[in-house]
Amino acid sequence: MKTIKFIAFLFYKYYSKGATSDIPYVSTLCAMGLLLYLHLVQFLAIFNALNLIPGNSSDTRVVEYFKIALFMTPLFLIIMIFIKKSELKSMQCEKHKIKKGYIFLIIYIILSFSLTMFLALIQKGKFSCT
After folding, report:
1. CB of 35 within 8 A of CB of 109?
2. Radius of gyration in angstroms for the set of CA atoms belonging to the chain, rounded to a whole number
């Protein structure tokens, strides 16, 4: 849990500057939700259960977004329970630890997206592991 809170702190610190400085907590929750969603998709792809994620090719884009929003709401609320705004505001870390954390976070996100794409290609049959 300590690592997850540190990742949330890194996102919060990043979103506290620039255009998102008014809503760093919400932006942090959204970024953490995206990472959790990516891991859920990876887990479901490994077990060949991607059909559990709502979506239908005959639905309009608005309906698909609505279904995904309903699907993501519990994940978002769970993250909000464990990561409190007051904790993020009060967290302090050394500069070198933050810098190293950002580097590892970027690498982690790139690898996570790559794994998701790789698993999607396997699921579509475009890439064979045999």
Report:
1. yes
2. 17
Say what the pTM is: 0.83
Nearest to 64 by CA among 73, 74, 53, 75: 53
Domain residue extents for the chain:
2-124
Burial of 75 (0-12, 13-18, 19+ CB in 10 A): middle
Phi, psi for 123 (deg, rounded to 5) = -65, -35
Q: pLDDT digit string (tens) for 19-33?
A: 888 899 999 999 999
For residue range 37-55, list pLDDT tens digits in order. 899 888 888 887 766 666 6
Distance CA 123, CA 46 (A): 9
* 51/26 Cα distance (integer angstroms): 29
The dihedral over CA atoms of 13, 75, 111, 15, expressed in degrees to the nearest 10, equals: -20
CA dihedral of 43, 78, 34, 24, whole degrees rounded to 10:
-160
Rounded distance between C-alpha atoms, residue 110 and residue 104, angstroms: 10
Q: How far apart are CA 51 and CA 31, in angstroms?
A: 24
